[in-house]
Amino acid sequence: MNQLWKKAGALLLTAGLLTSVLAGCGNGNNGSSSASKGTESKTTSSAATSSGAEAGDANFNETGFPIVNEKVTLSFAYVKSANMRDLNENAMFQKLEETTNVHIDWQYAGDADWGEQKSLLLASGDLPDVFFGSNTLKDMDIMTNLDYFVPLEDYIDKYCTNLQAAYEAEPIMRKMITSPDGHIYTLSRKLPLRPKGCDVSFINQKWLDNLGLEMPTTVDEWYNVLKAFKEQDANGNGDPNDEVPLTGCGMFDWIRYVNPWGITDSLEENYLALDQETKKPIFIPADERYKECIQFFNKLYAEGIMDQEFFTQDGSMADAKLKNEEVSRVGTGIAWEVKAATNPHSDEYVVMPPLAGPNGDRYIRGNDATIIYGRNEFTVTTACEYPEVAMRWADAYADDDISVQSYWGPYGEVLDKADDGTITFLDPPEGKNGDGWYWEVTCRDHGPKYISPETEAKIVLPEGSGDGAKLECDEIIKDFVAEPYPLVNYTEEQMDEISKLTVDIYKYVTESWANWIVNGGIENDWDGYIAQLNQMGLERLMEIYQEALDSYNSAS
Question: Which of 21, 49, 171, 241 is most exposed, with the fewest beta carbons within 10 Å of its own?
């Protein structure tokens, strides 16, 4: 049922945005919001909790279940992707309500609408009890509105045994949510059975076999292989000109290739890496090793080995070359998982082990904290009358069984749990793809989930697809994974300064990068380029990154 949060709705109507409404599906209360005090939602909640639910109150249980003796309703805002099932219909959450006696008034917005709606809600101060999921609030939203959010560290220490156990086993989970002022305003998660490595390079093994070539182990050997792919009709169809030895699109794809030069890119911060020897932050496009990598790829481009449309095509265009039905056309590329990326020719492609660079470095980018971990999963607002209840509910969510189901789907529908604790996957319904089905019935990007190593060891992933296929790739690359730059915290002032400094710096880097690979000249331009970056504030930017890293490293 569609609805408007009161103040956000009024602002949207004033702006004439009648189609951009915040949708929600309540259970028997018309989806009313408890964010607006004195509204129907608060009346409903008060009626259901006439005894109250605060610490020390007879209705609230500090341990055990239910969390409250008489039902309490809390409003949760979340962002719902188009293929994600309404959380009201999720059997796991229905069971969790039975266990906790806490009813969640789920209020959702679509991906496309959320940015504007979030701004309106934060501007109005008319808030839900909880923002649920890492795609609801960003670091800047929290740090610039601290008066709206409840510090959580005391609740964690007093009521949250599951979260405490997770933080003890994985100290990074607490460090990444401890803000520079020492408080915790939001909860973290750890995703299960994540690979150590991130994207992997792949190569057409059939082409290697056709030409009698060995798997390359260095960047020089890789160059020779790519040159042969271009010149010797590697796919064997009689046309020596339809092979694309190396394809991709834009900086996002290309920067993955800097690894053999001893530096690794980061998803968390654009162009930022952790030096593997000094453990200090480095700005990749200002590093001498980056210059050497550019020179190598300029040679590939000049000789027609690198896709001449690498800088102008989007992902769908590169993908169309890779997935050409008639015959394989691509020699090498980079992807999260090889089989899905190279279908319908996936039987021809294999993972290419990390290449050794000019100095013998064989790095591959490790999974950033944003892929293995995540923060801003559960943020309690000052509109919440019962933060103790909200935090005990969050701790119940961090239970092994709930976390497993929140990531892959409910028991009995997607998963089967045997008496010995082994967890296997049921076949998806007819007409449903396995990976797509999991995304539909889960809330993978939502909530403070954590699964213990003991439970992870009992999960049997399907082979050859999804997470199972990715872990198969990871077996080949995991020993070469570099330490990624951590998910640090910034003060509001640091965030603001980073935002201002990077506008010109990023633009200049992007323009220079493409020009150098296509036209060459980095040798002559380099000193002036570095001077220009420093004039734009690069040295100050790196000081901020170092300050934030020092603060992160000193957090308990």
Answer: 241
